[in-house]
Design brief:
Layout (H helix, E strand, L loop, with lengths): L7 H28 L6 E6 L7 H13 L9 E6 L7 H10 L4 E5 H11 L5 E5 L19 E5 L2 H15 L5 E6 L4 H15 L5 E6 L6 H10 L4 E4 L3 H5 L1 H10 L4 E3 L1 H5 L4 E4 L2 H16 L10 E2 L4 E5 H6 L6 H4 L4 E3 L1
Parallel strand pairs: 1-2, 1-3, 3-4, 4-5, 5-11, 6-7, 6-8, 8-9, 9-10, 12-13
Antiparallel strand pairs: 10-12
Helix pairs in contact: 2-11, 3-4, 5-6
């Protein structure tokens, strides 16, 4: 049998080649990992109403994300789901977002946050806005929310009650006041009615509760108010009612019924608007999102509470109703619509 001999030089070359081959095999996974793109975070937005109705708020939220360096489609994916005012759809939409999955949920309104809370106890949840998160049971406390929820809240019941107080000041002769609520939002409307009732007593006002679950019921509700001959209307704070503020304000004028609601209610044609700046609060939601994506835990992020409230008076509506607003309340208005 013929034997092959390898010189020392050839042996060295072969050894070096084997070493290079082994190193290449070992380095291959590292190179592959280095070439893999970084994971793009995905967030879910659960809206209680519609994107059209919440456009200023959603744009403020997106601007807040852009200010922090997030660009949708590049280094962030945002999945939006809207219940269109049908709160019974929220649990299924929340489950859909959790199942994608997303890295965290951003919720709009108390019903949306409750749907998210019941869907997951582990995924971080950022409340873009909620009405009194402590009273409604969403968090344990503002400084120590505990659990998987943080974000922003405000005293929604007190805002509705303040609206009644302003109505009485503007129209001292009113006695019978309708209160419009959405029965599908009991965590907010229940405390709101109680807060309004506490104000009504000292003001010697008699309250008449009315319910509406959607715009299709508005006409019949206002007809019922007319039959009871109420003097004025308080539209309780609720996402669905707020989204339809223009239609409600128009019906108020049609039935010659002075009315009050959130800040933007007067801007949409209501007589008095009082409340918080929702777009600014939604912008703050982006800060919570950024902190959580960078590793913070919701339980360690104190819930922020809105402290600035705005009073808007619509003198155009007052003129249409044949009313004169007292100077004492005019001088306190942050915005007057002529």
């Amino acid at each position: 049998m013929r034997q092959f001999r390898i010189s020392n030089f050839e042996f060295r070359i072969l050894s070096i080649g084997m070493v290079i081959l082994v190193l290449a095999v070992l380095a291959a996974p590292l190179v592959a990992n280095a070439q893999q793109p970084a994971k793009v975070p995905r967030i879910g937005f659960l809206g209680a109403t519609s994107e059209a109705g919440q456009r200023p708020q959603v744009e403020a939220f997106r601007q807040g994300l852009r200010d922090l360096g997030y660009v949708e489609g590049q280094n962030l994916i945002a999945e939006f789901r809207w219940a269109r005012g049908q709160y019974e759809r929220l649990p299924a939409l929340a489950a859909e977002l959790v199942g994608l999955p997303v890295d965290l949920l951003v919720t709009h309104g108390t019903p949306g946050t409750w749907a998210a809370k019941r869907t997951t106890t582990t995924m971080p949840i950022v409340m873009a806005i909620s009405g009194d998160a402590v009273a409604s049971g969403l968090v344990a406390s503002l400084p120590r929310p505990g659990g998987n929820i943080t974000g922003s809240t405000y005293f929604s019941p007190e805002v509705s009650a303040k609206g009644l107080e302003l109505l009485k000041e503007a129209l001292p002769l009113i006695r019978h006041v309708a209160v419009l609520v959405n029965p599908d939002n009991p965590q907010v409307t229940g405390p709101a009615v109680q807060a309004i009732a506490r104000i009504a007593g000292p003001l010697k006002l008699e309250l008449h509760p009315f319910e509406a679950r959607g715009p299709s019921e508005f006409e019949s509700v206002f007809a019922a108010m007319a039959k009871q001959r109420v003097d004025a209307l308080v539209v309780a704070d609720d996402s669905m009612l707020n989204d339809n503020r223009g239609g409600l304000a128009a019906l108020g004028v049609k039935h010659r019924l002075p009315s009050t609601g959130i800040k933007t209610y007067a801007e949409a044609g209501g007589l008095i608007g009082y409340g918080v700046n929702f777009p600014e609060i939604f912008r703050r939601a982006a800060v919570f999102v950024d902190k959580i994506l960078k590793g913070a835990k919701p339980a360690d992020l104190p819930v922020e509470q809105a402290t600035k409230f705005v009073l808007v008076l619509n003198l155009k509506t007052a003129k249409a109703l044949g009313l004169t607003i007292p100077q004492s309340i005019l001088i306190r208005a942050d915005e007057v619509i002529q």
